[in-house]
Records
---
Amino acid sequence: MIALFVALLLVLAPGSGKVARASGAKGNRFLCTAVPTGTDFNCPVDTNSRVQNTSPQEEELRNTIIQLREIILQQKETIVSQQGTIKELNSKLVRCEADAKSRGNARRKDYSKNTMGDLPRDPAETVQQLGKTMQSLKDRLENLEQLHANTSSGPFPNELKDLLKHRLSDLEGQLLTRVAELEEEKSQLYNETAAHRQRTENTLKTLLDRITELEKSNSAFKSPEDFKVSLPLRTNYLYGRIKKSLPEMYAFTVCMWLKSSASPGIGTPFSYGVPGQANEIVLIEWGNNPIELLVNDKVAQLPLSVSDGRWHHICITWTTRDGFWEAYQDGERLGTGENLAPWHPIKPGGVIILGQEQDIVGGRFDATQAFVGELSHFNMWDRVLRPIDISAMANCSAYMPGNVVPWVDANVEVFGSATKAALEICEDRLFDS
């Protein structure tokens, strides 16, 4: 590189950068002179005095100079680039030395640390620290043993025992108190049971006495039909029962004397139920409804009113032909109708109940449908009576017992608090009026 630079200085002409050929010596001689940077080395060509013939050596030399110039420029750029790289490397080296120094200090600081805890890395310090730890653990163990000894021999167990005894004593007292209460309740229950049994026995004795009295009073009736059945309460256990049943019938007449002031509705004076049809024949006034006659559970409303607390004579007639019916009150026919269970024969073998409506044959009574009042002279016929006969019975000018159910004392039994008592209906009716 240096040899090429010297050769370049030798071949360059001074000043203008032109190549001058010296004269006055043997052969040719070249002179070099400095030229400014960026000078164009192409020789101007004078069109008027252009050298027509250029030697090959001059052309080659000129190309060599151009190549050398380009090489120098490239080397200059390379040197500048290398200087920058050197500066960058120097700065990195400085930083590396600073980092190495700081890490050295850090290592010296960490020398007294142990990744396992606060123990130093120095063996002597580690042994000393372990000794202190062991002594601390030993002291804590001795303190625990001393506390256990004090607890076992001190007053605490005795206090605990006293507390437990006191608590057990309280529980025992509570248990004894509860047992005493249960014994007292048992005694009271026994006394109540005994009193209830005594009351039941007294009630039964009263009923037996009443039955005996009634049986004795039967002989006092002037005639077997001069009595009445009293049903004073609206319950489901007061009622009378006719011992006789009905045959199969295609017509009937039922008559009775009633006295009631119950409201609303007098209830059910009588009902006749058969297997499969509890409402075969029913006479009922329930709630605010008018008095109704049911035949085979079919209903007809009757224009009757008997809830004034006076005796009234009631007669109902019915025939299966067209289901025709008639309603009489105090001997007067107040209403008629038809199509009440037409062509349905009254079934035999049922039960006649006085004062209750049957939901099953002979039972399951409803207190809201019970009759409240007095009833007498309940008679049934298997035919339709003439109006003159009905009027005669209502006027007490004649008495006709029913041919299928007559009103006689031996044919009527009462239950619950229902009673039978002597009654001369015509005299009592005249007294009411």
Note: The domain at 227-432 is CATH 2.60.120.200 (Jelly Rolls).
---
Amino acid sequence: MIEDETAGKREETGTVRIRRLPSNKTKIVCTIGPSSTSPQVLADMIRSGMNVARVNFSHGTSDEHRMLIKNIRAAAARLGRTVAILIDLPGPKIRIGKLIQEPLILSKGETVTLTADPASSDLAAIPVNYPGLPSLVTEGTTIFLNDGFLQLKVIRISGQEVVGKVVIGGPLLSHKGLNLPGISLPIPAVTPEDLVHVDLGLDEGVDTFTISFLDNPKDIRVLREYAHKRGVAIHIVAKIERAGAVRAIDAILEEADAIMIARGDLGVQIPIEEVPGVQKLCIQKANKLGVPVITATQMLESMTENILPTRAEVTDVANAILDGSDAVMLSAETATGRYPVETVRMMAKIARSIEAQRTTLKGRSRLEEDLLTGINRRELTVDDVVSLNVIQATHALSPRYILTPTRSGRTPRRISRFQPDCWILSFSRDQRVADFLAFSYGVVPFFVKPDEAAWHDRIFDMIRDAGLAKTGDLVILTEGSLPDLAGATNALRIIRLPDRTGLHSL
């Protein structure tokens, strides 16, 4: 969209190169791994619809992470696209270590040994990366591996070893997760190792991080304060994957910049049949506050090995979009799968199809109805009123675009939560704000150089020069009485896009 990144560190350019908008408004988050690290595959994934590149710091070395960030930016710059980079911090997750042979096949009824001793000489034991594991379990504890697909029942504990009987078997790979539902780890969600990863990200100009396995908003404040001491304002995505996070969702949404519904671990931490309801509830709450929400895990899982997804997976993606997700995420499908580019392309096709049917299938959004009928009216803000009026105007006039100059990104996010039929073109003088809008449904972020003076003229010139609009097109423009103050948007104008000599308001 905007050529705003180069190979290496961030460079602000503001050069518009896009000539057409994407086919779908739902954003696509792709996990980058062995299948997708090459410059050519990265470029093909961007062309196919990738908006956010997720770099999972649970895997790889610091040098590999730096090179990957560099390659993502280089591919985005070559294509003139905005691709946000999301660093996924590992958090206090217990993982299987490096297996000597993989996949390791666990057979039902056999006895296996997990060792928390990094110096263990038992080659038959399964290494675990958490020394405290033996102190967390007792005889009879159920241990879940690989998002619950494998299960062990503890039969004894001996020193640093936990011996278990395989209840549900199957293949096990290195670095897969180990879950103990109902057992709280005695360590914070933001670990010392996470802070080392944050330092690397900040050094590389990345400012968006996930917090894994949090139970309350305290960890969000800890991470934000850590970055603040380094002089950087960061964006934090809270992963909802523990029962505690579900219980604290309202408080977490007040602190987080976005949330990710991580259904893999969530489906182990809570009864799996409750996951769909939790997903819908979290999306509804996030939409109400204008907080971007990512639905993640196993969305097109079968495409890890197959060229086509199952019908159930297609329906899952479509329903997540209808629920109000800003973004949908691919994990193993693009990290280790055989068809990373085809998977992104399929995700975009599903999104494009269901978005075209949104009005027929859902009619007016529940959030819009709540605001119109006065539910929670005491909680309405100026942002709510402006965004609702914008949406009402789009229903009546079907404008070409909604144009939102913004300093904080708040106005386009508040409009985006209604998922309008037309695109929201957002313009910011802050590169980080523009990048984070890559997470919001239907928002195309533009970076405007800080030395640019007249907002309106520059915005109109940018979309004309990009070939996105022409003189006479109907647009809705949001603006504030104090244009240099964040959060001051309090009005809208309905405009016929002027020629280069002046404005023509309706």
Note: The domain at 94-179 is CATH 2.40.33.10 (M1 Pyruvate Kinase; Domain 3).
---
Amino acid sequence: WRARHVLDVISLGPDTATGLGVGWAGTVTGLLLLVSALVAVSTALVGPVAFFGLLVAALAERIVDTRRHGVLLPAAALAGIAVLVGGQTLFQHALGNATALGVVIEFVGGLVFLLLLVLGSRK
């Protein structure tokens, strides 16, 4: 959360970020190490739901219609909570635990990933 303004500057590209005073290589390396550590810890604690972060980030970006990290990070957190709680409630009460929520998240996340790849290649 504290790096949200730096993330906005980094998203402009390496030349622009360097021109605005952000140390590109050090900041990107530090953020990648932080993200990989957080993913490792969450996978160890929760289990391998690989596409959940991608699914929530894409959903939050579509909902708030901005790329500003100050708005996008809380929206992604709320979307993640809503998807997990809503999905688990749906599977427990409406479907009687017919399948695991992780399986559905992996399937839908994989489809969203492929969709984002296809739409990104068209640009």
Note: The first helix runs from residue 4 to 10.
